[in-house]
Design goal:
Number of domains: 1
Helix content: 25-40%
CATH topology: Deoxyribonuclease I, Chain A
Largest sheet: 6 strands, mixed
Number of helices: 6
CATH superfamily: Endonuclease/exonuclease/phosphatase
Strand content: 25-35%
Distance between the termini: 81 Å
Order of helices and strands: HEHEHEEEEEHEHEEEHE
CATH architecture: 4-Layer Sandwich
CATH class: Alpha Beta
Structural class: alpha+beta
Length: 278
Protein backbone atom coordinates (compact mmCIF):
# COMPACT_ATOMS: atom_id res chain seq x y z
CA UNK A 1 0.00 0.00 0.00
CA UNK A 2 2.80 2.42 0.97
CA UNK A 3 4.63 1.66 -2.26
CA UNK A 4 1.48 2.54 -4.26
CA UNK A 5 1.12 5.74 -2.25
CA UNK A 6 4.72 6.75 -3.00
CA UNK A 7 4.21 6.10 -6.71
CA UNK A 8 1.03 8.18 -6.68
CA UNK A 9 2.76 11.09 -4.94
CA UNK A 10 5.65 10.89 -7.39
CA UNK A 11 3.23 11.18 -10.29
CA UNK A 12 1.60 14.21 -8.70
CA UNK A 13 4.91 16.01 -8.13
CA UNK A 14 5.11 17.69 -11.60
CA UNK A 15 1.58 19.05 -11.11
CA UNK A 16 2.44 20.34 -7.64
CA UNK A 17 5.66 21.92 -8.93
CA UNK A 18 3.74 23.69 -11.71
CA UNK A 19 1.27 25.26 -9.28
CA UNK A 20 4.02 26.30 -6.86
CA UNK A 21 5.84 28.10 -9.68
CA UNK A 22 2.57 29.63 -10.89
CA UNK A 23 1.91 31.05 -7.43
CA UNK A 24 5.45 32.46 -7.18
CA UNK A 25 5.15 34.20 -10.53
CA UNK A 26 1.73 35.54 -9.53
CA UNK A 27 3.14 37.00 -6.30
CA UNK A 28 5.95 38.67 -8.24
CA UNK A 29 3.48 40.16 -10.70
CA UNK A 30 1.20 41.33 -7.89
CA UNK A 31 4.12 43.18 -6.30
CA UNK A 32 4.86 44.84 -9.63
CA UNK A 33 1.21 45.81 -9.97
CA UNK A 34 1.24 47.47 -6.55
CA UNK A 35 4.46 49.30 -7.35
CA UNK A 36 3.52 50.70 -10.72
CA UNK A 37 0.30 49.21 -12.05
CA UNK A 38 -2.30 51.45 -13.63
CA UNK A 39 -5.70 51.58 -11.96
CA UNK A 40 -9.04 52.76 -13.27
CA UNK A 41 -8.65 56.01 -11.32
CA UNK A 42 -5.64 56.80 -13.53
CA UNK A 43 -7.86 56.98 -16.59
CA UNK A 44 -8.34 59.58 -19.27
CA UNK A 45 -7.58 63.22 -18.50
CA UNK A 46 -9.59 66.08 -20.07
CA UNK A 47 -8.79 66.50 -23.77
CA UNK A 48 -7.70 62.89 -24.09
CA UNK A 49 -9.39 59.71 -25.21
CA UNK A 50 -8.22 56.37 -23.90
CA UNK A 51 -8.45 53.43 -26.29
CA UNK A 52 -7.66 49.84 -25.41
CA UNK A 53 -7.20 46.62 -27.36
CA UNK A 54 -7.71 43.23 -25.77
CA UNK A 55 -7.69 39.65 -27.07
CA UNK A 56 -10.10 38.10 -24.55
CA UNK A 57 -9.59 34.48 -25.73
CA UNK A 58 -13.35 33.89 -25.72
CA UNK A 59 -13.40 34.85 -22.01
CA UNK A 60 -11.55 31.62 -21.16
CA UNK A 61 -8.75 32.25 -18.69
CA UNK A 62 -5.50 30.44 -18.05
CA UNK A 63 -7.40 28.48 -15.41
CA UNK A 64 -9.48 27.09 -18.35
CA UNK A 65 -12.65 28.63 -16.92
CA UNK A 66 -14.98 30.78 -19.00
CA UNK A 67 -15.69 33.81 -16.84
CA UNK A 68 -17.09 36.72 -18.86
CA UNK A 69 -17.57 38.92 -15.78
CA UNK A 70 -13.87 38.54 -15.05
CA UNK A 71 -13.17 39.66 -18.61
CA UNK A 72 -15.37 42.70 -18.04
CA UNK A 73 -13.52 43.46 -14.81
CA UNK A 74 -10.25 43.64 -16.74
CA UNK A 75 -11.78 45.78 -19.51
CA UNK A 76 -13.14 48.26 -17.00
CA UNK A 77 -9.84 48.31 -15.14
CA UNK A 78 -8.10 49.79 -18.18
CA UNK A 79 -10.14 52.96 -17.77
CA UNK A 80 -10.71 53.03 -21.55
CA UNK A 81 -13.54 54.91 -23.25
CA UNK A 82 -13.31 52.80 -26.39
CA UNK A 83 -12.20 49.15 -26.59
CA UNK A 84 -11.40 46.91 -29.54
CA UNK A 85 -11.74 43.21 -28.74
CA UNK A 86 -10.42 40.11 -30.46
CA UNK A 87 -11.71 36.54 -30.04
CA UNK A 88 -14.92 38.04 -28.69
CA UNK A 89 -17.13 35.22 -30.02
CA UNK A 90 -17.10 31.49 -29.56
CA UNK A 91 -15.51 29.47 -32.34
CA UNK A 92 -18.30 27.27 -33.68
CA UNK A 93 -21.35 28.53 -35.64
CA UNK A 94 -23.51 30.41 -34.92
CA UNK A 95 -20.58 31.96 -32.99
CA UNK A 96 -22.46 33.34 -29.97
CA UNK A 97 -20.81 36.11 -27.97
CA UNK A 98 -18.22 34.93 -25.46
CA UNK A 99 -18.87 38.16 -23.55
CA UNK A 100 -22.70 38.24 -23.50
CA UNK A 101 -24.51 41.39 -24.52
CA UNK A 102 -26.49 41.60 -21.29
CA UNK A 103 -23.31 41.72 -19.18
CA UNK A 104 -22.03 44.67 -21.21
CA UNK A 105 -25.46 46.34 -21.15
CA UNK A 106 -25.65 46.07 -17.36
CA UNK A 107 -22.28 47.84 -17.08
CA UNK A 108 -23.29 50.64 -19.44
CA UNK A 109 -21.21 49.58 -22.44
CA UNK A 110 -22.54 50.06 -25.96
CA UNK A 111 -21.75 47.62 -28.76
CA UNK A 112 -21.10 48.33 -32.42
CA UNK A 113 -23.47 45.99 -34.28
CA UNK A 114 -20.90 44.11 -36.35
CA UNK A 115 -22.14 40.55 -35.95
CA UNK A 116 -25.57 39.04 -35.92
CA UNK A 117 -27.31 35.97 -34.57
CA UNK A 118 -26.02 36.72 -31.09
CA UNK A 119 -22.39 37.40 -32.05
CA UNK A 120 -20.56 40.30 -30.46
CA UNK A 121 -18.35 40.98 -33.47
CA UNK A 122 -17.23 39.77 -36.89
CA UNK A 123 -14.51 37.15 -37.19
CA UNK A 124 -14.21 37.64 -33.44
CA UNK A 125 -13.43 41.37 -33.76
CA UNK A 126 -15.69 43.66 -31.73
CA UNK A 127 -15.87 47.33 -30.76
CA UNK A 128 -17.46 48.59 -27.55
CA UNK A 129 -17.61 52.05 -26.00
CA UNK A 130 -18.99 53.85 -23.01
CA UNK A 131 -19.88 57.45 -22.20
CA UNK A 132 -21.75 60.33 -23.77
CA UNK A 133 -18.57 61.79 -25.28
CA UNK A 134 -18.63 59.25 -28.13
CA UNK A 135 -21.32 58.95 -30.79
CA UNK A 136 -21.28 56.13 -33.33
CA UNK A 137 -21.78 57.34 -36.90
CA UNK A 138 -20.95 54.38 -39.16
CA UNK A 139 -19.32 50.96 -39.17
CA UNK A 140 -18.40 48.06 -41.44
CA UNK A 141 -16.30 44.99 -42.27
CA UNK A 142 -13.06 44.49 -44.20
CA UNK A 143 -12.42 40.91 -45.43
CA UNK A 144 -8.74 40.01 -45.23
CA UNK A 145 -6.70 37.86 -47.63
CA UNK A 146 -5.14 34.57 -46.55
CA UNK A 147 -5.94 30.90 -46.14
CA UNK A 148 -7.37 31.39 -42.65
CA UNK A 149 -10.78 33.05 -42.39
CA UNK A 150 -9.80 36.48 -41.06
CA UNK A 151 -11.40 39.89 -41.13
CA UNK A 152 -11.12 43.40 -39.77
CA UNK A 153 -13.80 45.79 -38.58
CA UNK A 154 -14.06 49.56 -38.55
CA UNK A 155 -16.22 52.14 -36.83
CA UNK A 156 -16.52 55.90 -37.17
CA UNK A 157 -17.20 57.97 -34.06
CA UNK A 158 -17.69 61.60 -33.25
CA UNK A 159 -15.59 62.25 -30.16
CA UNK A 160 -14.26 65.07 -28.03
CA UNK A 161 -11.20 64.94 -30.31
CA UNK A 162 -13.36 65.27 -33.42
CA UNK A 163 -14.18 62.52 -35.94
CA UNK A 164 -12.30 59.31 -35.25
CA UNK A 165 -12.11 56.12 -37.30
CA UNK A 166 -11.00 52.95 -35.51
CA UNK A 167 -9.92 49.75 -37.25
CA UNK A 168 -9.71 46.51 -35.30
CA UNK A 169 -8.02 43.38 -36.58
CA UNK A 170 -6.65 39.99 -35.57
CA UNK A 171 -3.97 39.21 -38.13
CA UNK A 172 -2.83 35.82 -39.39
CA UNK A 173 -0.31 33.43 -37.91
CA UNK A 174 2.10 33.40 -40.86
CA UNK A 175 4.42 36.24 -41.84
CA UNK A 176 3.20 36.20 -45.44
CA UNK A 177 -0.45 36.44 -44.41
CA UNK A 178 0.20 39.28 -41.97
CA UNK A 179 2.09 41.33 -44.53
CA UNK A 180 -0.64 40.82 -47.14
CA UNK A 181 -3.32 41.74 -44.62
CA UNK A 182 -1.59 44.95 -43.49
CA UNK A 183 -1.11 46.03 -47.12
CA UNK A 184 -4.76 45.25 -47.87
CA UNK A 185 -5.99 47.21 -44.86
CA UNK A 186 -3.84 50.17 -45.84
CA UNK A 187 -5.21 50.11 -49.40
CA UNK A 188 -8.83 49.92 -48.23
CA UNK A 189 -8.47 52.75 -45.72
CA UNK A 190 -6.63 54.90 -48.30
CA UNK A 191 -9.75 54.79 -50.50
CA UNK A 192 -11.88 56.22 -47.70
CA UNK A 193 -12.17 59.90 -46.73
CA UNK A 194 -9.05 61.10 -44.93
CA UNK A 195 -9.81 61.07 -41.20
CA UNK A 196 -7.81 60.60 -38.00
CA UNK A 197 -7.58 56.82 -37.72
CA UNK A 198 -6.49 54.31 -35.11
CA UNK A 199 -5.46 50.76 -35.92
CA UNK A 200 -5.46 48.34 -33.01
CA UNK A 201 -5.57 44.63 -32.38
CA UNK A 202 -3.67 41.40 -32.08
CA UNK A 203 -1.17 41.69 -34.92
CA UNK A 204 0.60 38.41 -34.08
CA UNK A 205 3.96 39.99 -34.96
CA UNK A 206 6.81 38.52 -32.88
CA UNK A 207 9.70 40.27 -34.62
CA UNK A 208 11.68 42.79 -32.57
CA UNK A 209 12.33 44.72 -35.77
CA UNK A 210 9.94 47.56 -36.75
CA UNK A 211 8.23 45.36 -39.35
CA UNK A 212 4.79 46.92 -38.98
CA UNK A 213 6.21 50.44 -39.23
CA UNK A 214 7.72 49.58 -42.62
CA UNK A 215 4.53 47.89 -43.83
CA UNK A 216 2.32 50.84 -42.89
CA UNK A 217 4.52 53.96 -43.02
CA UNK A 218 1.46 56.22 -42.87
CA UNK A 219 0.95 55.10 -39.25
CA UNK A 220 2.87 55.78 -36.07
CA UNK A 221 2.88 52.83 -33.72
CA UNK A 222 2.84 53.22 -29.97
CA UNK A 223 6.00 51.77 -28.40
CA UNK A 224 5.89 47.95 -28.44
CA UNK A 225 5.19 46.49 -25.02
CA UNK A 226 5.08 42.78 -24.19
CA UNK A 227 1.49 41.59 -23.73
CA UNK A 228 1.73 37.85 -24.46
CA UNK A 229 1.63 35.40 -22.79
CA UNK A 230 -0.24 37.10 -19.98
CA UNK A 231 1.44 35.25 -17.13
CA UNK A 232 4.95 36.17 -18.29
CA UNK A 233 4.77 38.54 -21.26
CA UNK A 234 7.52 38.25 -23.86
CA UNK A 235 5.94 39.26 -27.17
CA UNK A 236 4.45 42.62 -28.19
CA UNK A 237 1.70 41.00 -30.24
CA UNK A 238 -0.96 43.58 -29.38
CA UNK A 239 -0.37 47.00 -30.93
CA UNK A 240 -1.97 50.41 -31.34
CA UNK A 241 -1.10 52.82 -34.16
CA UNK A 242 -2.38 56.26 -35.17
CA UNK A 243 -2.52 58.26 -38.38
CA UNK A 244 -1.94 61.95 -38.94
CA UNK A 245 -4.17 64.12 -36.78
CA UNK A 246 -3.60 62.04 -33.65
CA UNK A 247 -0.82 61.62 -31.15
CA UNK A 248 -0.24 58.95 -28.51
CA UNK A 249 0.72 60.83 -25.34
CA UNK A 250 0.82 57.80 -23.07
CA UNK A 251 0.47 54.05 -23.50
CA UNK A 252 1.01 50.82 -21.67
CA UNK A 253 -0.04 47.29 -20.80
CA UNK A 254 -2.68 46.72 -18.14
CA UNK A 255 -1.30 44.16 -15.68
CA UNK A 256 -3.50 44.48 -12.59
CA UNK A 257 -5.09 41.27 -11.35
CA UNK A 258 -6.99 39.36 -12.61
CA UNK A 259 -5.60 40.36 -16.03
CA UNK A 260 -2.70 37.93 -15.54
CA UNK A 261 -5.10 34.97 -15.71
CA UNK A 262 -8.28 36.25 -17.44
CA UNK A 263 -6.88 35.57 -20.95
CA UNK A 264 -3.64 34.52 -22.60
CA UNK A 265 -3.13 38.18 -23.59
CA UNK A 266 -2.94 41.36 -21.54
CA UNK A 267 -4.81 44.48 -22.70
CA UNK A 268 -2.84 47.34 -24.20
CA UNK A 269 -4.01 50.96 -23.99
CA UNK A 270 -3.14 54.37 -25.36
CA UNK A 271 -4.17 57.91 -24.47
CA UNK A 272 -4.85 59.94 -27.62
CA UNK A 273 -4.98 63.67 -28.30
CA UNK A 274 -5.85 65.54 -31.47
CA UNK A 275 -3.06 67.45 -33.23
CA UNK A 276 -3.13 69.77 -36.21
CA UNK A 277 -2.16 68.16 -39.47
CA UNK A 278 0.63 69.88 -41.43
Amino acid sequence: MFRSLRIGLARLWPVRWFWVMLRRVSHIRLAADKAGGMTQEQSTQPGRLRLASYNIQKSVGLDLRRRPRRTLQVIEGTGADLVLLQEADKRLPPRPAALPHFILDEAGWQIVDLGGAGSLGWHGNAVIWRGAALTLQDHGHIPLPGLEPRGAVWALFQTGLGPLRVVGAHLGLTTKARHEQVHHLAEVIAREPELPTVWAGDFNEWSRQPVLDHLAPQLRFAPPRASFPALRPMGALDRIAVSAGLEVVDSGVYRTRPAHIASDHLPVWADLVAVEQP
